[in-house]
Amino acid sequence: MKIILTADVSGLGESGDIVEVKDGYARNYLLPRNLAIVATKGAQKQVETIRRVQENRRVRNLEHAHELKQQLQNLDAVTLTAKVSPQGKLFGSITSGDVVAAVRKAGGPNLDKRSVSLRGHIKSLGKHVVDVQLHPDVTANVSVQVTGEQ
C-alpha cells in the first residue's frame, strides 16, 4: 500500500515521504495513529505544496537561528545563583530551565529548555559551558557562571 507519512517514523521515513508498506502495517499501525494517510493524486499534490512551504520556513528558521546564536554569543555574563551548603556544595543541581531563566535575565533571547544540553549534571560552583541547539545545523555555546548563596 502506498502511503504518505504525516510524521517522522523511525526506520521508515520523514514527514511528507511517500513510501510503500504492507497493508496490515498501514491499516493497523500507521493510519490509526495518524502517522500517515493513503496516497492519492490529490494528497500527493498537497504534500508537494506543504514541502515547498516547509523548505521556505526552514531557510527562514536557519537565518533566525544564526541571529539567535549571535545574540547568545554577545551576552556578557550569564550568572546563576544557587543555594550552597557551608562546605561549598550545591543543594541539588542546575537544570536546563534554570539556564533558560538566567539567559533571559541576562538579556538574551527566550529559549526552549529542551534545546539546552548541559553536558552532564552541573553540581558545582564555577564556570560551565552549555550547548544550545537552535536548529539542526546551528548550535551555540553559552558560558554560565554558577555562584553560591547561603
TrEMBL record:
Highest taxon in the source lineage: Bacteria
GO molecular function, one term: structural constituent of ribosome
Domain Ribosomal protein L9 positions: 13-40
InterPro entries per record: Ribosomal_bL9, Ribosomal_bL9/RNase_H1_N, Ribosomal_bL9_bac/chp, Ribosomal_bL9_C, Ribosomal_bL9_C_sf, Ribosomal_bL9_N, Ribosomal_bL9_N_sf
Record keywords, A-Z: Ribonucleoprotein, Ribosomal protein, RNA-binding, rRNA-binding
SUPFAM superfamilies reported in the protein's UniProt record: L9 N-domain-like, Ribosomal protein L9 C-domain
One GO biological process term: translation
One of the record's GO cellular component terms: ribonucleoprotein complex
Function: Binds to the 23S rRNA.
Family label: Belongs to the bacterial ribosomal protein bL9 family.
HAMAP family: Ribosomal_bL9
Listed name of the protein: Large ribosomal subunit protein bL9
Organism: Saccharopolyspora flava
Encoding gene, per UniProt annotation: rplI
